[in-house]
Structure formats: structure tokens, C-alpha cells
Design a protein that fits this description.
Blueprint (H helix, E strand, L loop, with lengths): L5 E3 L15 H4 L11 H10 L4 E4 L28 H19 L2 H18 L1 H15 L5 H22 L2 H4 L5 H4 E6 H9 L3 E5 L5 H11 L4 E5 L5 H13 L2 E5 L3 H10 L3 E5 L9 E5 L2 E5 L2 H9 L3 E8 L10 E9 L9 H18 L27
Parallel strand pairs: 3-11, 4-7, 4-10, 5-6, 5-7
Antiparallel strand pairs: 1-2, 2-3, 8-9, 10-11
Helix pairs in contact: 2-14, 3-6, 4-6, 5-6, 12-13, 13-14
Length: 391
Amino acid sequence: MARSAGKDGARPAANSDQVGKPTAASNGAAVDETQASPAPAQGLAESLAAPDFEELDLAGRIVGGDPSGPWPIPERDVGGRHRGWAKRLEAWATLGVLAFLGRMPEFMLAPLLAGLARFACRLDRRRSTAARVFLKQALGDDQSAAQLDRRVLTAWRHLLRLGAEALSFERRCLGRPLGEHYRVRASADARAVLEAESGCLLVGAHLGDWEAGLPALAGLGFAPLYAVGKPPQNHYLAQHLQALRQRRGMRLLARRGAMADVPKVVRSGGAVVMLLDQRAVRRPVMAPFFGRMARCDRSAGVLLRRLGAPVVLFSCLRGDSRGGREGRFELDLGPVIHPGDVAGMGSEAVAALLNGLQERMILARPDQYFWVHDRYRETSSDSDEEPEPGA
């Protein structure tokens, strides 16, 4: 991994209308047994929560990594299992719509996305209801129905915008100077990990434009870069997305089987991206997320013990104040969890620690978070299989 230097930078304060009432987990109030937080993890999260960031010098850096590698894991087909002419037409139609939206001028795109978001709220009532539950848990139950409706609508609009801009990213950003499109800040520990040119895990949430963060990470020198994810069920869409990510200088590890591949990547000096904020399905651990017990991914705790490699928290926000649609992003690296920080902790405590750190990132910009997710739905936890890293 390449070296970087920088100058001081400060995190912008969250707008007062973006964050609601603090949850029980964040204000220290007593909670019942379904909301209890492991004390060691909570204390460590407090100590790691606010590192000093410095803005990195991005001279000579470009957006994206080298598609030619070297890659420690042989290329694998991570395509979905649904094939046939109907699925091929579905993929063509989806990609055609996304390409059209990516070319649409902002004065036309913004009202279109607003209308589509309202339609999605009404059409997918299950996810919209789940978003209201999630928002009330995270931002407080004193929000009015109108406030909740506005926030659910914002969540849908943000998600639709990410889709609308997904294919145009290459035209706007890929291969261009990193500093034209990103402001990158890193804690001292994160800079040390980057300069060490050794392997690490990069853990984030579905916050901001997480896909836009990946080519920036590759351009900074986190290479070879892999991301753990679940490909679309449509084989042709999955193939297209796999090729798109490879052009950006990264490769995808399918969730099923990723635990066997991640150690090889990290031991080769590479970095593996995992998004661990969503509900885990296979072999979850129970840990508090915004003060309520939820099914969480155990893979980070397992890998910390198995690999002895650091975990770097990251987020990539849309920098709307600096151009928004033109491709301005705010990438933060840090805090960092070292294996010694979690010595003696079980997977539940490590999950609680990661949850606490991710909660703070989310509450700083709740308008850019993926609330349209049934975070607290119960799932089976009686499997003896290896955990699958989240994405």
C-alpha cells in the first residue's frame, strides 16, 4: 500500500434537523435486557469514537486501482443463478434505464427521483414500515408521523440517486485525479495502516455512496482490494457488475465461501471491504444496534482473532455542498481497531464495538443512510456453518 501525508481537517457538524433524540445506547440511560450493551465494548467504542483526522495529500493519486492486479485469489464467476432470455431482457432494461438516468441533467433528475421515491414508499409498504421502525429506534420515538414520513422519503430518494448515478461514475470520475472528486481524511492509526503496506480489513456501513468509496480506496493504495458482497440473482446483471468493479480496480468475493478467501487476501498484503451494518442471516451473534438487540455479523471478530490484522472503519459521504451531482465525496478513514484492543472479547462484544462506532457515523449524516432495511427482523441462528461476512 502506498504512502500518503496530509494536513489538518475537521469533521463538519451534523445539521440539527438531521439527528433526532439520542437513543438509550448513546445517552447512557437504563435499558431492559433486550437492549443491554456489553460494557467493555461500549467503553472501547467511546475511546475510539473521535480520532483526530488529517486531510491527505492526494497529489499523483487517481480514482481507481490497477485492474491487472496482481490478484492473490483466482478470478471466479460470482454471477447470479437466474438465467434465460427473460432475465437477459430484464438486465438490458435495468442497465438501459440506469444509463438514461445517468445522462439526465440534474434539473430533470431531481424531481423525477422525488416522484419515484414517493411511489416506492407507497408500493413497498413492508420496507417503508421497516424503515420507520429503524428510524424510531435510532433517532428516538418522539418524532412525529410527518417527520418519520419525510425521513423515509429521504431514504428512498437517496437510494434511488445512488442507482441513478451508478453507471455514470466511470464517465465522471474513474481514472481522474483523486483530489478532483474526493476529500480524504484519515486518523493517525489509519495512515499508519496505509503506509505499512500490510493487510487489513476495511469495515463500513451502507452510508453515503459506499460504492464510490471503493475505487477511492484502491486509488489510495489499499491493494489488491476485494469487497465481500452478495451478487444479484440475475446472472447477467451480476456479470455486468462484476466487470464494472474490476474496471475500477477491485474484485468481488461472494459472501458464500468468503471466509476461506479473506485470509489469503489479507496475508498477501491486500485489503478486504465488508459492510457489517445489516441483519446477518447465517450464524449471527446478538448485539445491540441503536440500543436494541439485533442479529449481527460475527465475521469481523473471527477474522481479527484469526489474522491478527487491523480493522479500519471508513465512510464515503456525498459532498453535496461541493457539487453533489458532479461527483464530490468525503472519504474518512478511521478509527482503527487493532487485535490487541479486543483481546479476550467474544464475537458478541466485537460486534457491539463495531455497531457503536458505526452508529456514530450514521447519526452524523442520517439523511445518507440506508434505512430501508428490516434491521430487527428475526432470523435463524442455529447453523453450524462458517459465518459469511456481510455486505
